[in-house]
Amino acid sequence: MRRTTRPGANELVMLRPEGLWCEAGGFFIDPWRPVDRALITHGHGDHARNGSAAYLAADASAGILRARLPGASVQTVPYGERLRINDATVSYHPAGHVLGSAQIRIEVEGEVWVVSGDYKVEADRTCDPFEPVACDTFVTESTFGLPIYRWRPQQEVFDEVNAWWAANAAAGRASVLFAYSFGKAQRLLAGVDPSIGPIVVHGAVEPLNRAYREAGVPLPDTRLVSEVKDKSVFRTALVVAPPSAAGSTWMRRFGEYSDAFASGWMRLRGARRRRAVDRGFVLSDHADWPGLQQAITASGAHRVIVTHGYEATMVRWLREQGLEADFFATAYGGEEGAALSEEGADGTGNDAAAKRADAAAAAGGAVVTDTAATDAVPTDAGSTTPNPAAIDESALSADHGEDDATIGRTDLA
Amino acid sequence: MKRFAELYAELDGSTSTLAKVDAMRRYFQSAPPQDAAWAVYFLAGGKPRQAANARVLRDAAREAAGIPEWLFDEAYHAVGDLAEAIAHMLPDGPVDDTLGLDAWMRERIGMLKGSSPEAQAAMLQQWWGALDWRGRFVLNKLITGAFRVGVSRLLVIRALAEAFSLEPQLLAQRIIGYTDARRNPDAERFESLVSQPDLYAASAADAGRPYPFFLAQSLQEDPAGRLGAAQDWLVEWKWDGIRGQLVRRQGATWLWSRGEELVTERFPEIADASFALPDGTVVDGEILAWDAQAQRPLPFAVLQQRIGRKAVDAKLLRDAPAAIVAYDLLEHDGQDLRERPQVERRALLERVMAQAAHPLLALSTLVTADGWEEYARLREASRSNGVEGFMLKRKDARYGIGRTKATTRGEWWKWKIDPYTVDAVLIYAQPGHGKRASLYTDYTFAVWDGRPDGGRALVPFAKAYSGLTDEEIRRVDAVIRRTTTEKFGPVRSVTPTLVMELGFEGIQKSPRHKSGIAVRFPRILRWREDKPVAEADTLASLHALLGQGG
Known about the structure:
heterodimer, A: 413 residues, alpha/beta, Metallo-beta-lactamase, Chain A, Rossmann fold, 7-stranded mixed β-sheet, 6-stranded mixed β-sheet, 11 helices, B: 550 residues, D-amino Acid Aminotransferase, Chain A, domain 1, CATH 2.40.50.140, 22 strands, globular
């Protein structure tokens, strides 16, 4: 077993301008640029991007990926099955994030890495539960990598949603629930009590419902909003829509309604107020702070590489816990980034991050340590303000990829 | 605590006024009176002394959460609110929350105050452990006294009025002084507050109770279009001091500030002068630093020396003399005049003031002109007269309560002069709080100043928080992150690229500030994206404003 203090050249997995690269296997994992061979952890837009020649994913991801990457060559494998790809042995293991999400285990000459993509540790009836996989190096996200993020058991959240929906229905107003179309929407549909009233969904949500049903995940009956002719139906209905529908003319048809947003970010009052919705339900498909610690411990890894989220914070914390820790400057942005691409703005939200990842890789080391280089801030990308200062990112003092931009992202989603 | 935490959650989670009033009404009707007493106190703006300092809270929370100080700080900055950050970072345990609000305040938080930091930490950790995050959050708010939940005193009054079928006006009057920090709320005070009028026993302590202040709306447009003929209006200067009510009853005097604070002892010369007024008189006016000889106000900065100073010595009285300039009469011969028309109250006021004939009881003079155009010209002299513009009062206006809705027919208007403006450069930024936590919204601005070596440097002179739209805030936030050169704690120093037009109300020399000046009420008027940093204003141009009064 090799021990290194920095991921760099000759590592089992390295950072390249295209994405995470495994030399021994000759493949990329969740590349953000077109490559020959892409191993995909899950179907969210920031992890599964267009343009690569060949894709490999878990079986349960097949329907989603074929819908999202039309015409692409997609191969799938069952969870747990070991494949030999050049000099690497690869297997996919459930990550519990969304349908088909996987941690990718890579073994080369006895050394084991697990690239976990996005994950959560609480079991969820719409996908296979997170499975701890022993490894030497664990590559983890840190979307909610601050100790203020602690989730309540999901049933409590579903109960809150049910109570809100029932109260609205009793008052004769629609309940419009904003949730990311892929994953969160289906988890909510599977969790709420369909006896309260009819469930209608936005056009962006239904194709994913179909993919879930085809994969054998039971969901209650749903109708497309556009198919509802009798508007009085809305008065007792739960309407599930992507966050981008908020404030759009699409909302006009509901007459009087109460709106809510289901996201881990809703944990904070400030974030909820910025959203300006009536209710915020704290429900995330990412691990909370204790969940991240639990997954890292369960992997048994002596070394952890943090990708996106509050990475500098997590790296420092893990080092203080006696682990080797570093981070990869990736272009992943959690489901918010995915939500951006879902709504037809594919990639735009992650340009800034992709550029930084490029810069980092080009700068020689595959990893950027202790800089703010990975705050994937779509607000930057979207800004028209000139940047006369052009400060060298690496000159910035210790930051944490947080940069609170994570919350900004939800605003743009 | 559970019931109150639920009320807090409802108020915090709603933007609907109706829903908030309804939530409070249900709470007031169902909570035990001793708990409701405290709820009214907090919701109406009462601020108890902080029971434990922030350091103790932070350390106790860090220890309970098992995290180092730097991580606590990261978490705190992401939340932007200490009470909430602590509530979120502690693990949930089995909840045992049956104690009422009053018991919490008296038996627990009351006990916290005198204890050693170690004992405080132990108590806090034990209490946190038995509450859910909402309960922890509200507890932390009660301890730190920073209790803001988007409810105005007027809404509390509406809820109480609905809950107990009382007139809002009556409650508005009774509630004055309720939030005075020197008296703890209790069941008796609450029951007295909401008792039916025939059962309401006015105690001796109530004798000095003032009337709720009537507030003016701000006039943004031309008065001719909005207010009709000028002859229907009384026009006075808008004084820039402390709004005050001088209550003269039962041979004694009470001087109240608009914050419903009793300030009689801070202005002994006004209290002395009030003896010239007959019993049963209540005067509404402005407390000003006053040049008695010239009969005109001194700059607000002089008055500032008196604000917050409880001990008033002879030197202070000499250096910063005060007077009250009267502009309304609310009670005469013990009769409430508030329903009488403005002109009638004004005539009585003039008579009362003439009889009193005391140099420290001045009368706010009426300004007369032929029409709005002439008033507009006269208004230009505001700054040299040491005032902020005009007050316009409809001749038939009754004396209302609080700020009336912006109806077509407002009765009191403030018609202020345009603020001073300056184009300044943003040099430091810091995240805001609450809704703006984790966005850079608090800025420090600078102007150019010459250096001995012939070059020039940016000198900070003002902080401003408000004035940008949400969209602009987001864009400015992105620029700040991109142009950061240094960080000290939460503060970022940036490469100067952002120019904003700032407005402010007054400007004073200030040896305490690096720039040598201090400005009043600075705020952002607009983002000058068209203006390069090099063309921002200079310190010399600010100094030039010093001569213009204010």
